[in-house]
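Our collaborator T.R. sent over the components below with a one-line note: 'Predict the complex.' Nothing else. No constraints on interfaces, no templates requested, no preferences about which chain binds where. So this is a plain run: every listed entity goes in together, and whatever single assembly comes back becomes the starting point for the next discussion.
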Amino acid sequence: MKRFLSLTAIVLVLMVAVIGCQQAPKVLKVAVLAPLSGPVPTFGVSTRDGALLAINEWNAKGGVLNMKITPVVEDSQCTPDPAVNAANKVINQDKVHYIVGEVCSKASIPISEIANAAKVIQISPTSTNTAVTVDKSGATKAYIFRACFIDPFQGKVGATFAFNNLKAKNAFIMFDQSNDYVKGLAEAFEATFTQLGGKIVGKESYDGAKDTDFSAILTKVKGAKPDIVYLPDYYNVVNLATKQAKAKGITAPFMGGDGWDSSDLDTKASDGGYYTNHYSPDDQRAEVQNFLKAYGAAYKDDKNNPKVPDALAALAYDATNLLLTAIKNAGADNTDKVKAAMEGISFDAVSGKITYDAQHNPVKGAVILKVTGGKVTFNSFVAP
Ligand code: PHE
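Returned assembly:
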C-alpha cells in the first residue's frame, strides 16, 4: 500500500511537471536599445515605437516559431557608457539573443563589440558609420547587421546634390570631432565634393557634447562666403548652429544628413536647408502606405492626430521585421542559424528592398528632403 502510494505520488509529480512544461509559454526576448533620454530623445521614442509596432503585429499573428515575442527596452542615451551598460544588462541579466539598436553610431560601435563577442545578433536600424559592422582590421563582425545605408553613400549623395543640383561650388564644413557619425559623414561629403571639382573654403570642428556657442566658427563661415554649409550633425546641434547663423546674417543654405530627422528640428532656423534621409512618407509603395496607416492608428501626437512616422520609426520597424523574418526562416532561436538567414534574406522593407553585402550593409537608395515654410518636403530619390 505504502509502495503504491509513493508510486502514485511519483506519477502525479511527473504529470504535473509535464503539464507544467507544456503550459510554460515559450518566449523570445528582443532587446530594444534606444536613446530615450540624453541629447536626442526624439530618436529614442521613434525607434522604440517603430520596433514595438512590429513586435505587436507579429504577436497578433501568433509570434515567431510559436514563441511570444517579449521586448526588453533600455535607454542607451546615444552615449558610449550608458550604451555599454544597457548591452551588458540585456545580455547578462535578461539573457537576450537579439538586440535592435542603437540609433547613434557612437553608441552602436561599442555595443557591437560586446554583442559580437557574446554571439548575440545586433541589428542597428539607423547607425550609418562603417565601423558598426566592420572591425579595425576590415573584417565583418559576424553577428552584427544594420537596416540602413552607410555614410560613404550618404555623403556622396549629399555632395553630388549640392554640386549638381544646387550648383554649389564652394562649401564650408562644420563637424563634431567627437562623434563618429558626424566625422565620417563630413569626410565622405568632402571626398565627393572635391572630386566633382568643388572647393572646401573652410572646415572647422567643435565638441558637440560641450559646445553651445558656435559664433567663432560662424564668423569664419561668414568671411568665407560659401555657397553651402555642410553640417552633418544631430538636430539638437543643428538647431543651435542654424539659429546662431541666421542671427549673424548668414544666408547660405545649410545641408546635413539623417541626423536632422526629428519632429524637434527647428524648421525656421534651418529654412532653405536640405538633408539626405532614408525614406519619405510621400512614397506611394504599399509597404510605406500600410506602415503609415498602422503607425498612425497606434500612436497619436499631442493633438490626438495620427503620428507620421519619421525615418527612425520606419527603420526600427524594418530592423525588427527583418530580424523576426530571419528567425522564422532559420527555424530556430539559434544565433548561428539566424545570422546565416540574415545574410541570405531578401526583404521588401518600408525603406526599400533589403539584401546584404559582405559587410552586412543593405544596398539601398536615399531621399533628399528640403526644409521650407516650416515643413520638411520631399525633393528627390537617389538610387544606390
Ligand atoms: N545615422 C545616425 C548615426 O549613425 C543616426 C540617425 C539615423 C539619426 C537616422 C537620425 C535619423 O549616428
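Summary for T.R.: The mean pLDDT is 94.
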